[in-house]
Design brief:
By secondary structure, this protein is an alpha/beta fold. It has one domain. It is built from eight helices and nine strands.
Length: about 220
């Protein structure tokens, strides 16, 4: 498709990725030669990319997330959500979060990124551990992809960085959550995005679904 678009318009193209799609685009770029990228790619526009991983997939894997659909309970949709490797792939990266940061808090245990194997065992989904093992290194280290990158991300709206459960975990919804104290849920996102001098950032007052306002001057 990239090469077809190039031939059609006789100029390099921009790649656009949203959320997990940005991770797919990054992985795709890693597989291409620099000669190919220099010829075909003008730049990479990234919207709300979870460069350092995201906390929400842990909640999704533990107790499900119906994304506001009233006719489907979180628990009922959980099994389907556990079948996809993308949720395991998006778990928070150890390079981007403090070693002692609690992602899931229960009365009996507090789960950090060092406790993923126990987390999967405790939610009775040990296959998730192997899914994570298979995907964790696909974009490890986030080296520069060899193209200019434009990163857009949201600020100013509540973003959970810790989900709190009662003793019915994992078969109930979280009873509360802790919000991010920084502008983004990825601690220091600008330090953990793909590296390189050509990367540019624009903070926007919108949420993950694109609902919001205007660019915030920086």
């Amino acid at each position: 498709l990239v090469e077809d678009m190039y031939e059609e318009y006789q100029q390099p193209i921009y790649l656009l990725g949203h959320s997990m799609g940005s991770i797919y685009v990054l992985y795709f770029l890693y597989q291409q030669t620099q000669v190919w990228k220099d010829q075909y790619i003008k730049g990479f526009i990234s919207l709300c990319a979870p460069w350092g991983g995201a906390v929400k997939p842990l909640r999704v894997l533990a107790s499900g997330e119906n994304d506001g659909i009233p006719m489907v309970s979180n628990i009922k949709i959980r099994e389907e959500q556990r079948m996809t490797t993308t949720n395991s792939w998006m778990l928070p990266f150890e390079e981007a979060w403090p070693a002692d940061h609690t992602f899931i808090s229960t009365p009996s245990f507090k789960y950090t990124h060092q406790d993923y194997q126990r987390f999967f065992k405790d939610i009775d989904f040990e296959d998730g551990w192997f899914m994570w093992e298979d995907t964790r290194n696909l974009t490890a280290g986030l080296p520069p992809p060899g193209v200019e990158i434009y990163c857009f991300y949201g600020v100013g709206l509540p973003t959970p960085v810790t989900y709190i459960y009662d003793d019915q975990f994992p078969n109930v919804d979280p009873i509360d959550y802790v919000e991010a104290s920084t502008t983004c849920p990825c601690q220091g996102i600008q330090g953990h995005a793909p590296l390189g001098n050509s990367i540019k950032y624009l903070a926007m007052n919108f949420n993950h679904k694109g609902q919001g306002g205007f660019p915030i001057p920086r």
